[in-house]
TrEMBL record:
Annotated Gene Ontology cellular component terms: endoplasmic reticulum; membrane
Residue stretches making up the AMP-dependent synthetase/ligase domain: 72-485
Record carries keyword Nucleotide-binding: yes
EC nos: 6.2.1.3
Name under which the protein is recorded: Long-chain-fatty-acid--CoA ligase
Enzyme class: ligase
A single GO molecular function term of this UniProt record: ATP binding
Keyword ATP-binding found: yes
PANTHER family: AMP-BINDING DOMAIN-CONTAINING PROTEIN-RELATED, LONG-CHAIN-FATTY-ACID--COA LIGASE
Family, similarity comment: Belongs to the ATP-dependent AMP-binding enzyme family.
Length: 665
């Protein structure tokens, strides 16, 4: 009798596969049919309106949406104040009545322009009630992007926070379809600065009305109206992706897309009214949007951060969430800070942490309970940094290293899972299982999706590769979008006639049917010797280096090697420099310009790349250090923190040319 067979997290669909593709794979729990909605007794929930009505009827007296009470005079933040589902439901009905009374009916498109807030969610909920299509705008967008989206989507109205009111009002003369602006304070009804709104009214173009959120609700209270919800296959939202090149594309998602994905996202989660979610990732991004749908549908309550990531941990400690979704950028920072704290501790403290870490890692691998002493003495202190009650942690939006994923599972406990998806799939395509403690993959297909790998001969990825097949990830299912708004050419480029979405990502299936992302079809370039290079992958590997906060890897097709712009991690570089007599008195900017520092970081990066298996041509030959972090504000990041490569190339062209001149001699 042989060893027990390993669990299969996904299985092949019989009779599928072809000359240039793998067999189709589905989640092993849903082999016969893809999930299109929630299981009984919620199997008649087909739209976002249905989801709200169901949640309101089941959880009327439970806490729903909350914000911290902030003293207007001192700015001091107090505790969270919550409205119940019943109260939010009444607000939703009033906002729906206001939409109808102001001539915004079924099929109209309305923008949501702000950071996350109770009003954002209530306004969007009102739109689902009246069959209005929501169009989220990132609060970080400048006037050009706001004007583009308002005009491209022909928005009839925009609900915005007072923080961006000045920008919105300044755009109105160039957005002729926008006839109504609703302004809110961001801390729930009653928080709008009426004087700010009053002062903005003289600047309005003729025919445009500006009201406070409180006035908006009063209009609705005086004009009650019945729901006019959309059907499952009608549009729920248009999400404009923050393009790294060119104009943003409007991803059209139906109610069926969102409901099926939420059901696939939550199929193995146990979320209830006792749970609490901290909402800080932008609701304009599909990751937070579907997470919000999942937690509210299951009766959990949501607390919103105050809008400042520097105060996020303070908000978390006050709220004490049980559900915390984030992105690798934050998890990497937590990982770095914890490890830096360990290195700065005594020898005894360092050994205690490493003993505790290895002990718990072995316990998790064996399916055993962790050591109670280590849990109390070591890991409880780390959990307290996230409020002490987190039981679900998720990471998405970008790849996370296996090392950091393992660290989160060991140090913070609970369930830590990674999801892979995109706006065009209405969020999740695959996710890891809470029963699987292996790392380095993104799990099995979500129950609402099926996946196949298609050959990419130019990159030498085929379904016949050994030991595992490789190819571009194609996904199909009820959550796949219906197309880009007013852009048939781009739609046809990613959606085929059978409903398959070409993701542009290269993947492989590991044993057990788990998907691993290994490359990116887009953002690749060819060097002078003909080698294909994927800078995203290289940057992700260099991000593991403790000296590297950010990097931009570039390759000129006329050159045989790569160069990079690197932003060092200031919190690591300064302490390191103090150990060197000739560097100890230099500030961060001066260190970035010092040849010795540059050489040390380059050598360290090359070692990191070698350990990760980078080929020689994938390693950078030269670097330039920049003291300024890439950000949305300086135009180098999209609102979802993706690098804008054309803009980065333009910004650093002089440095790149100089590096190539120096290394080509």
């Amino acid at each position: 009798m042989g060893p027990p067979r390993a669990r299969e997290y996904s299985v092949e669909v019989p009779g599928t596969g072809g000359r240039e593709e793998t067999a189709i794979r589905r989640n092993s729990a849903y082999v016969d049919a893809l999930v299109t909605g929630f299981p009984p007794p919620h199997d008649r929930v087909w739209t976002l309106h249905d989801a709200w009505e169901s949640a309101l009827s089941r959880h009327a007296r439970e806490k729903c949406l909350g914000a911290r009470v902030v003293d207007r005079a001192t700015g001091a933040a107090g505790s969270y104040a919550f409205k119940t589902f019943e109260e939010v439901g009444r607000e939703r009905a009033m906002a729906g009545g206001a939409l109808a009374a102001l001539g915004i009916g079924k099929g109209a498109r309305v923008g949501l322009y702000s950071i996350n807030s109770p009003e954002w969610v209530a306004c969007e909920a009102a739109m689902t009630r009246q069959g209005v299509t929501s169009v989220p705008l990132y609060d970080t967008l400048g006037p050009d992007a706001v004007v583009y989206i308002c005009n491209h989507a022909s928005l009839a109205a925009v609900a915005c926070s007072q923080a961006v009111l000045k920008t919105m009002v300044g755009c109105l003369r160039e957005t002729p379809t926008v006839k109504l602006v609703v302004c809110y304070g961001g801390q729930g009804a009653g928080s709008t600065d009426e004087a700010l709104v009053r002062d903005a009214r003289p600047s309005l173009p003729a025919g445009v009305r500006l009201v406070t959120y409180e006035e908006f609700l009063a209009i609705g209270a005086q004009n009650p109206t019945p729901p006019t919800p959309a059907s499952p296959d009608e549009l729920a939202t248009i999400c404009y992706t923050s393009g790294t090149t060119g104009a943003p594309k409007g991803v059209m998602l139906t109610h069926r897309n969102l409901i099926s994905n939420a059901a696939g996202y939550a199929f193995d989660l146990d979320i209830s009214p006792s749970d609490c979610h901290i909402s800080y990732l932008p609701l304009a991004h599909i990751y937070e949007r579907v997470t919000m749908l999942v937690v509210l549908f299951n009766g959990a309550h949501v607390g919103f951060y105050r809008g400042d990531v520097l105060q996020l941990l303070d908000d978390i400690n006050e709220l004490k969430p049980t559900v915390f979704c984030s992105v690798p950028r934050l998890w990497n920072r937590i990982y770095d800070k914890v490890n830096a704290g360990v290195r700065e501790g005594s020898i005894v403290a360092q050994k205690l942490f490493h003993w505790a870490y290895e002990s718990k890692k072995r316990a998790l691998d064996r399916g055993q309970a962790p050591n109670a002493f280590f849990e109390k003495v070591v890991f409880s202190k780390l959990r307290a940094k996230l409020g002490g009650h987190v039981r679900y942690m998720s990471t998405g939006s970008a790849p996370i290293s296996a090392e950091v994923m393992q660290f989160l599972r060991v140090c913070f406990g609970g369930t830590v899972f990674e999801g892979y998806g995109m706006t065009e799939s209405a969020c999740v395509i695959s996710k890891t299982s809470q029963e699987d403690f292996t790392t380095g993959h993104v799990g099995a297909p979500a129950p609402c999706c099926e996946i196949k790998l298609v050959d990419v001969p130019d990159m030498r990825y085929t379904h016949q590769d050994r030991p595992h097949p490789r190819g571009e990830i194609w996904v199909r299912g009820p959550s796949v979008f219906v197309g880009y708004y007013k852009n048939e050419e781009e739609t046809n480029a990613v959606l085929d006639s059978d409903g398959w979405l070409r993701t542009g990502d290269i993947g492989t299936f590991l044993p057990g049917g788990r998907l691993k992302i290994i490359d990116r079809k887009k953002n690749i370039f060819k060097l002078a010797q003909g080698e294909y290079v994927a800078p995203d992958k290289i940057e992700q590997i260099y991000a593991r280096n403790r000296f590297v906060a950010q990097s931009f890897v570039y390759g000129d097709s006329l050159q045989a090697h790569l160069v990079a712009i690197v932003v060092p991690d200031e919190e690591v570089l300064l302490p390191w420099a103090k150990t060197s007599a000739d560097l100890s008195k230099l500030d961060f900017k001066s260190l970035c310009a010092h040849p010795k520092v540059k050489k040390h970081i380059l050598d360290s990066m090359v070692r990191t790349g070698s350990e990760a298996g980078l080929k020689g041509f994938e390693q950078v030959r030269a670097i330039e250090l920049s003291p300024e972090l890439f950000s949305v504000e300086n135009g180098l990041f999209t609102p979802t923190f993706k690098l804008k490569r054309p803009q980065a190339l333009e910004r650093f062209k002089h440095s790149i040319d100089a590096m190539y001149a120096a290394t080509s001699r």
